[in-house]
Each structure stands twice: as structure tokens, then as C-alpha cells.
Amino acid sequence: MGGKHLKVTPWALWTILSFFLYGVLHGQDVQAPTLRECCQYGMDRFLEGHDCTILPLISISISHTCRIAQEQCCAAAAGDQHCDKGMEMAKEQEACEWPFFSGGTWETKISKMCCDCCLLGLMIASQASSCELQGLSLERQCTHTAKSCCGINLADELKQTEKPVANFTTMPPEGSNGCRDSNCSLLCVGNGTCACPDGYQLQNDGVSCVDSNECLTDNHNCVSGQVCINTEGSFRCQRETSCGTGYELRNDNDCHDIDECALGSHNCGPDFVCNNTAGSFRCYPKESCPIGYIQDAVGNCNDFNECVAYASPCLPGETCNNTEGSYTCRRNKIPCGRGYHLIEDGTRCEDVDECRTGIVCGVHGCVNLVGTYRCECRNGFFFNSISKLCEDINECRHYPAQLCAHKCENTEGSYKCSCTIGFKLTPDGRSCEDINECEANPCSQECANVYGSYQCYCRRGYQLSDIDGIACEDIDECALPTGGHVCSYRCSNAPGSFYCTCPPTGYTLAHNGRTCQDIDECSTGIHTCSVSESCFNIQGGFRCLFFACPQNFRQAAQGSGGDALINVRCIKSCHPHDISCNIKPVHTITHTSLSLPTFRDFHEPEDIVVLQTVTAANSAVPGATDVFFDIQYTDDQLSFDVEKRAHHGMIIGVVRQVKPIIGPRDLVIEVAMNYIKSRAVSHRNIVMIHVFISELWF
Question: Which keywords has UniProt assigned to this entry (predicted)?
């Protein structure tokens, strides 16, 4: 039922396009495709696996309506295929879950809907004898799918329950005429046997005939794209889709073209003539265009390009040039290559003498050649065969380190040598010699020429400036990190030197000009001590000392005024009958004096006094004498201690300063020397150490 399918291949599409162009160029018309062809082409594109949203043109003259037919028929074919998959899923698996379907969202949605609606139809068929969906407001496609599945299932059930009763014979009474006396509803085949014609089936009573629904029993011959409709005693096949614009469905169930021109349903204007086509119509202007022009779809006359439309409108050796409404033929010229030109009669090419036609080489010489020329370049230039020019030779690049001793600078046609800083060019223009910069006195004090430069230096007590490296600046020796040790007391800077000074009293500057020496007032006799006092020299001054022995002691000896230490020894001297005096352990009291500086860097104890004994150290003799030292009096900070040692086999006591003391200060240290024998103090000697600490470190 219906027309033949039109499958448009790429080669067929190119053929249609080629004939259309040929027809346009020769003023002929092109037959537009019918809507049926447009629809069939869209369905074929889907069946070939193409995307329905991207459809190529099947004709240049395709209308917008044809494009709609292509897209909608392609989409309908796609929808039918996905719907059929959903119906098959419902019949086979009786389940319509999303994971069972493949494809995109649109395809899955259609398959799921058809599967659900088919399940609904199958359920109605199993519960009722009719496929009427009473009381259900379903979508049109869902209703059609449900009825289709319901009808198929109901037909299968009828086939299973029907029994072969087509020929049921009811024998009339004996002696009667069988068919004349029979009560068959439609046919009697003799002997009272009832039968039914095609399209009917005999009931169980063997008399009545009822219509056979070929659509339910699947006894119809409707093809794909048609719907079976049961009729009384027969059936008919009706198209599922309409014929589309430009066609009408007639009683023969086929689509026939509508002649819009005969019916007057076209929209051609009064200046156009209507020409009917399959599924459409075309409007042609009543007036034709003159020769050399071609008429477009709206009736305008446009120039016809004869040079493109015809293969050879001109004679051989001529070139076609299109004009408005016509064309002209121009004779071809002989092409001459570079360096040649056409002679006046235009028959041949001859060489061009470039050296005469212009200044092609500039200031350089020119030599004409056949079809070209060359320049004879001056020294310092070379001829570039590509640009046909004399270009400068960069001697500095071609001969590096060969032309100039130091730097080479290229010039037009030559080069120039130069020297780096500190050198000058020799008369040969290539070599460089050193410049004696010291002749210009660039330095503030002393200058020494070196190769390619010079060096400034300064006299003692000055240093070269870090800013310009030329000026000499005074060195402040007193501010140097070691400036505190340059002078023993005070350092004063001077231009290029320095000088040291000492305290105003008690010191004098030594011969080295840096050290301050103490003045011994006691030996020089410039002290103020009385006759009864002893003068003791200390750092930066002196002391007048007088030591008297206590009661029951007498003075044994006294050091002279010039001695470094003033020693006064008091020996115990008791009356023979003074028992309390004799039992006291102290035998001697010794006064000694010591002058100390203020230790500038005090990090560890300093030994200041050594107390010697005549007692052997580490004696293993039973009952031997041992000596223990003890400080009985010192300053409040406990800045001193005494340590027992052995020296040359004898016991000695070493008094140490264990804490820093800032002078000036006068201190007294009382040290007891306890002699132990048989675990008892046999006697004790007292040493009084008078310490005078200066405020200075020297």
C-alpha cells in the first residue's frame, strides 16, 4: 500500500545537485521532491544510523515544508523503533525497569512509556474480553500501544479456546428436504449442513454465522506503517500516518497528489503562472528575460555568466570575459619571464637591459646578462644573487679576532678598530697599547700603573675610599675593633696616626708610646709617708702602712720600703708563768701587702698569694704533721678562697680571687694555717693579706 521508497545515496545527491546547476545555467527548471519523497528520505536516514537533527539537503530547491517532513518522519521512525523495543520488553520480561533500556534520555523515555502501556494492555486482556480502555485518560500513543498489546494477547487466547466447529451438521427429519427446511443463517451446503462464507465463522449452534475479526486473529495482510481495521465479513488496512502536505488519502488507501493549480489553492501572483508538481506547485513569471539574462524564483532577471556556463565560448587562444548581458573574447598574450619583455608586434620576448633602464646597482658597476644582470661590487661589498644588490661585508663577523686587537666595529664598506678602557689605539689602527693613567695624577696620594688600568693606594694611617677608590681617608685606629688594645689607657686619633695618654697622676707613658707605666713613689722618694710608716707602692699611687704586733707578740722582721711586699711578722712571746697565753695555738701573725689591677676579662679564678710551709706533703710517717688552710675573714662578697696544693714535695696554700672586683678597693684577707698532729691542732699561724685593687686594668 502506498508509493515506492526513495533511498537517496550521497552519489544520488551529487547527481541531483549537478543536474540542478546545469538546469539553472541553461535556463531550465528543476523538479522539486515530493513530500512523500522527503518523508521517505528522513526515514531512510534514521534506518542508516544517522542523527535526525542533522539531515543533508536532497535538492537545492528543497522547501521548508520538505525539511519539516524529513525531520518529523526521521523522528517518527526513531520513536517507533524505541517503542517496539519497549513492547518487546513488556511481552518477554513483563518488567519495565530503567536499567533494562539503553540509549539517551529521550530514547529511554519512549521505550519505558511503551513498555508500561503495553503491560497495561496485556493486563486488561487477561481480565476482560474487550480492549476498550474505559475510564482511562491516557496519552494518544499510550492508548494506541495498550490497545495493540491487548488485541494481540486477546487473539492468542481466543485461538487457544476456540474449537473447530466450522461444519456443524444438523440433520433434518427424515423425509424432509434438507436445505429447504434448514434454518441456516447464511449458507446450506446440502443435507441440512450449514456453513459460513469467508470472513465469518459458524457458532456452536451449527446455524448462526458471526463476523471473524481478522485483525485479532492476525489473518490480515496489512504491512508495516498500516493499521488493521475489522469490517463486517472482512477488514481493511489504513495508513498510520497522514499523506502530508500536497497529498490526499483516497478510497484506494493510497496518497494522491493535489493539483493546487486546478483547485486554485496556490498563492502565485497575477504576474506568475502556476505549474503543478508532485506534492507542491511552482510559480513561473509570465514574462521571460532577454538573451544574456536568467530569471530567478521571484522573477528578477540576472546576468547570465556565459564564461562559466559554457565550456569554450571563445576561440582557441582567446580568453572569455563576462559582461552585463553578454561576454567578450580577448586574445591571449605571450607571457614573458622576468628579465624579458614582449616586442612591439607581440610575437616574441627579448632580453631587458636592466643596466640601461635604471640605476639598479647604485654606485657599483652593472653587467647585463641574458634574462638578468649582476653588479660588480666595490671593496667591502658582495653581490647578493637573490636581492640583486651589493650588500656590505661585515668584516668583524667574517674575520673575528684577526683584524683588531680589542674591538671591531663594522662600517659601510669597511670596518674600524677601537680599544677597551685603559688602552689607546696605536698608529697602525689595529693594535692597542696601555695608557699610563698615573701621569694625570688621578689618585689623592699614591698611584701605581697596571696593565690596562691603575691602582690608587694610601700612606700609613690612611685607607682607600670605598666610594670612588681614589681618595684616601684617615684610619681612626682608636675606633678599630682592636682600638681598645692599642693604648693601655686612652687613645686619641690624629690625621694618619694616633697617640696614647695616661692618667694624670701615678703613671707615665712608656717608650713605645702606648703603654702606661706605674710611677714608684716609694723608690723615687716623692711619697708623703712619715718616719714611723712604711711606703708601699701600688698601681697609680702608694700607701703609707703601719703594722703593730698585738699583746704577747713581738715583731721579728719588716720589709724595706722598696720591696714589692711589706712583710711584718709578729712572733708569740708569753711570760713564762702566763698559762693562758702559752696554751693559745696562734704562734705567728704575718702582715703582707699586695697590689692588684682590676681584671678586665675575668673568666676563671686568679692565683694572687702563695703560702709556703716546710711540711712535707703526702707523708706516710705515722704522727706526721699536716696543714689545713682556712680563710677566717674576707670581703662581704666572699671574693677569695684558699686552696691546698703540693709543690716540690711541700704543702703550700694558694689564695685565689674567684669573683671579679671593680677597683679602687682596699681589702684585708685573714688566712689561718692550722698544723695538725695526732688529729689535733698543734699550733696555728695567721697571715693578714692587705690587698689594694687599682681601678685600672694595668
Answer: Calcium, Disulfide bond, EGF-like domain, Extracellular matrix, Glycoprotein, Repeat, Secreted, Signal
